[in-house]
């Protein structure tokens, strides 16, 4: 058995063992180090570097990136100036101006073509983001045909615990990502499966199916999962906000309603999204006013379409809103952070809705245009669904 | 829209933009660079480093790791001495003795607690490893209850294209990972979903369900997907080869046969695994002789249990084999590479089988104890299944 272990290690080039000739640390401990006082210590070994910095959303904007200090042995260190609040954070190092990952932390998430290390500060806030001993839903990568876009496309589908063992029908939340994201974003950064598992287990939300499509109509699926192979993805994908995705949305709903045990009623369908996904949700729910009883706009990029005024789905929005709001949807929910650069844009939308006496629920949080907010919005929004 | 793009970039710390102050390259091009003559060029920017090396399975053992050359501007370069054959390869850099990932390539796979960059050389060999325009199966992360191990555990399940749209029943292949792996290994390193999709589309294999459980009985699920949170996993997990996983296997088959449309016959069940998973497959198929018609041992760690002789499931194997082989399973398949350190062990097993006149199919490939072989074995083995 020991012989087998040695063999396996050697077949993986022994990189783990040689990784830390200059400095070693028990690799089963999490990195970075969360100290008893909840400050966090980062360490990076780079004996010849001129500068090593650490960057991440655990730092305030003014602190970013933070210069680390060489302890004399080539080990650069940085400890946060104060305790770090419970949250999931992303970070990376900058060695002589080049971004690199933490060689001692294999937990990474991908955003577009960049990877970020992650760490978590446990606490009440992050409790729902963790995998706990509760019944777990199934998460599936599912391909569907999109005749409108003339391609096969991938979506992620969360079915709640118990779905497989029953004949029950479930309501459906369609949950959309932002620009630069794809069908995997809500599961990684958004902790959607964990949040759903935990809130359902507590009885805080109704069991529901959550469908996470890919909102980039020029892309079949996330990078490496599409036929573009190992070419790196563009940050700005074409056609994300030209009305095509919104118009093709019934390809998604048709597939889901055909293949899953769903309740086929407006009162059992919700759509929500963040940033560009909020923009998509706004227009899709207005364009198909009989479809969605529940709408959630999370930090929505309300006027992202401004360069494309001639697209009917965008041009006729005022009329569409009127038709949508006359039917009194059970919930039209708008969430935004008080430091979000889109704050004024959302304020203008609210003003318009107020003028027209359109009903909506408004949720303002601390924070900017970041996942820290969107994870909270997912919790707050799902608690109001399908009641 | 441009404003939105700028906003999204800024909310991700602008790390992409500042990543390459010293050197920049179009990030949509794949890294490393595959030259027209199929040599491969690696570049790493590290102006202050004493040494930069590149390591990976594209190099021969004698070449590993390869020293890179500083071009004078801080950019270290290495071009392979000869064309690199079509395959998927893993690589990483070693900067002043510390392993780091390629900052310009976000395609990574995880092995235990280490990440490796990957690149592909296209060609006939790798054709089935790519995502092509063929019908795609669904890949699901599914939790099941394991009463024998007293825990909820995760498995990955591949259902072939068309599964959702039919009432058909399917045969099932149980596909097991090796030591240090988990339920994700066959999907990442093994390209199982792509291989299945492509071989089914060509009509080379029968449509089948593929179940990939987690073979480490002390672990509910892969790292980050289990309740161990952000603690890094051990390389050597306890209880992987003490008979508990093998004895608990009916928890898995029961769940699958209850929740999927399977053909519930020995002739429609296969089990295969690599290294430790080959060991598991050997003992599980012998311990449950009525269960599996098809058995595949890929570079099996035949005698990995040697320290635990008193476990009945291992101790009684000769009797179990006799019972298993008397029933003439339609296929007992053994594959091994001619450079695999387990070659002699497998030769001893074959000798034993030959002495007893047990029928088996033997497949010997070029290569060692590596995924390059196991991907081929998956193709060769599945072509023989359920005929």
Description:
- The structure is a homodimer of 387-residue chains.
- By secondary structure, chain A is α/β, with parallel strands linked by helices.
- Chain A has helices spanning 2-11, 15-18, 185-188, 192-202, 244-247, 249-259, 276-287, 312-315, 317-326, 343-355, 371-382; strands at residues 33-34, 40-45, 52-56, 66-67, 69-70, 75-79, 87-95, 98-100, 108-111, 114-121, 138-146, 151-159, 172-176, 209-213, 269-274, 294-298, 331-337, 361-365.
- In chain A, the strands form three sheets. An eight-stranded mixed β-sheet of chain A has the order 11-12-14-13-15-16-17-18, sandwiched between helices. In chain A, strands 3, 4, 7, 8, 9 and 10 form a six-stranded antiparallel β-sheet that branches.
- In chain A, helix 7 crosses helix 9 (317-326).
- The longest helix of chain A has 13 residues, at 343-355.
- Strand 11 of chain A pairs antiparallel with strand 11 of chain B, so a sheet runs across the interface.
